[in-house]
Specification:
alpha+beta; 6-stranded antiparallel sheet; 3-stranded antiparallel sheet; about 35% strand
């Protein structure tokens, strides 16, 4: 698993990358009440806004950490936004994408580096 400075996690699964937000991000946002996900088939570029999250505290945009195509979205978090607070690094993933290039992942943090970053 890799982590971004924007508090996203990325997990490689075969030729796809699963993306969500970290437990730290979910805690900072507070109670999540709304999630809007991209559409399957969307072509996105790194730093494109792909997910909108609203909590009782704030609204946040999640940016794509890679260039690629959205191949699956997790409708469960749309129907049940509090799941993001309950299991942000598990069942509450946001989307799966097929990156056009995996090499940018080399620049993201491993768990140890991320934990140092947030401490």
């Amino acid at each position: 698993m890799k982590f971004t400075k924007e508090h996203e996690w990325l997990l490689v699964e075969d030729d796809l990358v699963i993306i969500g937000i970290t437990k730290h991000a979910a805690e900072q946002l507070g109670d999540i009440v709304f999630v809007e996900l991209p559409e399957v088939g969307d072509e996105v570029s790194k730093d494109d806004e792909v997910v909108v999250i609203e909590s009782v505290k704030a609204a946040s945009d999640i940016l794509s950490p890679l260039d690629g195509k959205i191949v699956e979205v997790n409708g469960t978090v749309v129907d049940n936004p509090p799941l993001v607070n309950e299991d942000p690094q598990g069942t509450a993933w946001f989307f799966k994408m097929r990156p056009s290039d995996f090499s940018p992942m080399d620049n993201y943090m491993d768990e140890t580096a991320y934990n140092s970053f947030i401490s």
